[in-house]
Amino acid sequence: MSAKPSVDLYVSYDTIYPADTVEWCPISEYKDVFVCGTYKLDETNKLKTGTINLFILEHKNKIKLIQSIHGDAVLDLKWNFCIVSGKILLAAALSGKHISVYSLDKEENDLCLNMYTSFNLPKTDDESHMSLSIAWSSPDENGTQSIAFSDSRGYITVVNLNDCLVRNFKAHNFESWIVTFHYGEPNILYTGGDDCKFKCYDQRLKFDKPVFENKEHKQGVTTCSSSKIRKNIIATGSYDEIVRLWDVRNMKQSYNNVNVNGGVWRLKWEPINEDYILSASMFNAAHIIDTSLNICHSFGEKNNRLFYGADWCHLNENKKIISTCSFYDHKLDLFVVNMKL
Fold first, then answer.
1. N or C: which terminus of the chain carries fewer CB neighbours within 10 A?
2. Is the pTM of this model over 0.85?
3. C-beta of residue 192 within 8 angstroms of C-beta of residue 178
4. CB–CB of 272/341 below 8 Å?
């Protein structure tokens, strides 16, 4: 880690609709596959529409659009990091008040996404909530997985894959921007909301009250990421432009932080060694940050751009590939990080 990375634009793609989320498939056979979600608001009738775009990375600086699913606007996309009954699954948080789960299938030598199942969101005063983020749990002792999703009314809903409602509870006073499970511990989940609070809940306590609650972030908590290698470490980001690292053994305060000079919408650990964190920093493009929270590299054109999505390709190569997506100019960009990670 002595050399700082250099980042070069690999390919740029026009998603037509504003792009707000991008996720690479973590399953070994399909690490060259990724999805990008879009969100378009018709100001006249307030109708939200969007697309789930399925891509494959090809040689010679090319990506290929395999499929585009048109429908509700996409708020978040998350691949399951486990294979379930032989299926590779992708969960989508959609503006139509529901969660859809798709399976990645091979049909006549081409890949495609097919509907696997869906879940309706709760209602308050007969008004449906809008999903904002999704998280997959690690399998429990019985091999069962849960999906958690946060919503626009401050609720967290946890369901399992056989359509059984596990629990629905109020976590925040305003939007619950983010929910994530602790990696390897399916009972523990973290939430962040527009009330500036970062919280932890335990399913074994029936989510009745938070295990801890912290208001160190000065604005809404928008992202949270649990490290699978550094098992006690959690990274959070906020509209306050601060990335914070937490040790779950002492949650009274974060143990390190850095200002990235842009609201932090997504944080992603580098998937192989987790020596770096990738930040989608909204109006201040994207950053690669090391585990000491030094900003190693900032990249991405900032003019007329709003970076909501960023992710690492899971291919284990010396030259890592990073994807970002920006909202206003509806662009999906792929970058090559020229250093050994």
1. N
2. yes
3. yes
4. yes
Who has greater pLDDT, 323 or 303? 323
Alpha helices in 141-221 (DSSP H): none
Question: 31 and 314 in contact (C-beta within 8 Å)?
Answer: yes
Domains of the chain as residue ranges with CATH:
7-338 (2.130.10.10)
β-strand pairing of 98-107 with 110-120: antiparallel
Classify residue 74 by burial, with Cβ atoms within 10 Å: 0-12, 13-18, 19+. buried
166-216 residue pLDDT tens: 788 999 999 999 999 999 999 999 999 999 999 999 999 989 899 999 999
**pLDDT per residue over 232-279, tens digit each?**
999 999 999 999 999 999 999 999 999 999 999 999 999 999 999 999
Cβ count near 149 (within 10 Å) = 26
What is the mean pLDDT of the segment spanning 303-308? Answer: 90
Alpha-carbon distance of 2 to 146, in angstroms, equals 40
Q: Give 230: exposed, middle or buried? Use CB within 10 Å, 0-12, 13-18, 19+.
A: middle
Are 279 and 324 in contact, with CB atoms under 8 Å apart? no
Residue 177's nearest CA partner among 141, 224, 123 is 224
